Amino acid sequence: MNGIFMLVLSIVVLVGAYMIYGRYLARKWGVDSKRKTPALEMEDGVDYVPTSRQVVFGHQFASIAGAGPINGPIQAAIFGWVPVLLWVLVGGIFIGAVQDFGSIFASVRNKGRSIGYVIELYVGKLGKRLFLLFVWLFSILVIAAFADIVAGTFNGYNADLSTNLINGATATTSAAFIAVAVGLGFFIRYRKPTNMTATVVAILALLACIAFGLTFPLYISKSLWLYLVFAYIMVASVVPVWALLQPRDYLNSFLLVFMIAAAVVGIFVANPTINLPAFSGFVVNGQQMFPILFVTIACGAVSGFHSLVSSGTASKQIRNEKDMLPIAYGAMLLESLVAVISLICAGAVFSNGALPSGTPPQIFAMAVAGFLSKTGIPTLASNTIITLAISAFALTSLDSVARIGRLSFQELFMDSSTDEEKMGPLQTLLTNKYFATIVTLIFGYMLSINGYAKIWPLFGSANQLVSALALCAIAIFLKKTGKKGSMIWIPMFFMLGVTFTALFQIIIVRFTRLASGNFTLLTDGMQLVFALLLVGLGLIIAIKSIRTLFFEKGAKEQKAAA
Asked: If phi over 0 gives left and psi between -120 and 50 gives alpha, with beta otherwise, what is residue 530?
């Protein structure tokens, strides 16, 4: 297979899907550009902030992508390029993008509230609390996996203790990047520059950060970086969105567009051959394609985390309902394109029956830098920028999911009828945003020290189960508001089948290790507890949701949200 042909085919399919199926969904669901959004109706300057389409798109895309569309396809390449490509395109168009669009739509129509609130409204308070607990556990898994990836990307030393210039330069650039983002946030909020001025300032600041990082690389060990990453997300998850989240994502959008554009240009220049086999079999290295392929490739095809971002932060920034289609459906399809590019990179460097050593982000950066070297761009500069872009993806996901985890923990101990002025000392403590953040991050750190590779199967399974439960909530919302929702049903049942199969397999493996005596309490024990909790919570929520969707009689339609 030729890399250019795969890329062009994927672009045509994804653009066509946006123009046809995305617009079809917008019409069927009744997206109304004249309807006042929660960001305008409930503006508070912290979470509800009406924001331009471009900035929210940057936040959405950077938050949902993370390192997922790079890690997943490269890890799943063992099954061959055909199943990976088919799942990315079909899953992205008919499941992932539909979930993202449906999540943000349901949230906007319910005052910017989360998917958990939608479940409370239509399934009941118990369903909401179970879902919030599920989301909190899942957030811990995301934090653990992505924190380890970021710390590894910043690690200034190789295995032989020699310094790693690319990682050191990336670390310095990322640190400068965060500091500049804070300054940009205050500049945009208080000076209110035009879009053109803000764009010029952002690009110049980004270039300055890259030059600074290449000149002054920072060499710090991975273990210390792990502490620093958790300190960063502790701060980033509690400050107002305009002070860090929005400007940092605005800067990210330029960096990420450059990364994608550079990869596309590199592919056209290098015209790589896909050396991966088309299909390696249904069982490879003891792993079954069903369900492993579908939980390994989450971001890029369908990811439950996206529904939390769409309904947790992005929906509160939507200025006009017509912006939801490009921000949600469009951002997901762009992520699918990143997954396709990752597959092409894996295929290009695949040799002698194996991929090069290193993490998937390192393999991706190595491949793209190799493509760009044929255009005359220095390998060090291109590799640093691509690695920076990947770490920017992951950092954005980290502080977004830390915020989501914190909010989920707080909501566990309060509901819409809670009077915050009359809460007791214990409830006041449990709903305090700083306490909730610290508790969430402590568990995340305990899992992260085991490395992302040991967490990824459980993370992927939990992530896809969140997607299945979000699809349940969207289907119920559409039914209750009298809108067409049958396009949700097949994706919903498929994802439920995939994820419960994967989680049961993880549980069986852990019990087998326990029986054989090859069981570690911190690694296997925590994963077993998490898997059991996720299965139990997921089954209860799914059964309650399906009963509400298909068997509840005489339910009143929620006209207010229609």
From this structure: alpha
Q: Which of 233, 70, 229 is nearest to 148 (CA)?
A: 229
Find out whether the peptide bond into 360 is cis, omega within 30 degrees of 0.
Answer: no
Decide: helix, strand or coil at residue 357: coil
Helix (H, G, I), strand (E, B) or coil at 163: strand
Domains of the chain: 3-551 (1.20.1740.10)
The DSSP result for 279-295, as a single string, is ---SEETTEEHHHHHHH
Dihedral of the alpha carbons of 517, 521, 527, 531, in degrees to the nearest 10: 70
Give the Cα separation of 327 and 260 in Å (integer): 17
pLDDT, mean of residues 463-482: 93
The separation between CA 101 and the C-alpha centre of its own chain, rounded to angstroms, equals 14
Using alpha carbons, select from 182, 237, 238 the residue that is nearest to residue 398: 237
Report which of 409, 434, 322, 340 is spatially closest to residue 33, judged by C-alpha positions.
Answer: 322
- Given a contact cutoff of 8 angstroms between Cβ atoms, the answer to whether 528 and 510 are in contact is yes
- What's the mean pLDDT in 178-199? 86
Q: What pLDDT, in 10s, does the model give residues 523-549? A: 778 888 888 998 998 999 999 999 999
Find, among 334, 316, 312, the residue nearest to 408 by Cα. Answer: 312
Spatial CA neighbour of 332 closest among 361, 303, 295: 303
3-class DSSP assignment, residue 482: coil
Tally of helices (H runs) and strands (E runs) in the chain: 24, 2
What six digits make up the tokens of 358? 């290193």
> CA 478 to CA 327: how far, in whole Å?
20
The answer to whether 189 and 242 are in contact (CB under 8 A) is yes
Query: CA geometry: angle at 405 spanning 400 and 407, to 5°?
Result: 95
In angstroms, rounded to a whole number, what is the distance separating the alpha carbons of residues 456 and 433? 28
DSSP 8-state code for residue 554:
S
Tokens (6 digits) for 66 = 């993370």
Look-up: residue for tokens 């946030």?
185
Question: In the structure encoding, which two tokens stand for residue 155, read together?
Answer: 């690690």
Which residues touch 276 (CB under 8 Å, ≥6 apart)? Answer: 77, 80, 81, 343, 346, 347, 350
Q: Residue 2 is encoded by which pair of tokens?
A: 């030729």
pLDDT 10s digits, 381-404 = 788 788 877 777 778 778 778 888
Q: Are 81 and 301 in contact (CB under 8 A)?
A: no
For residue 343, the tally of other CB atoms under 10 A from its CB is 29
d(CA 369, CA 384): 9
pLDDT value, residue 561: 60
Closest CA to 449 of 376, 526, 537: 526
**What span, in angstroms and rounded, lies between the C-alpha atoms of 470 and 304?**
7
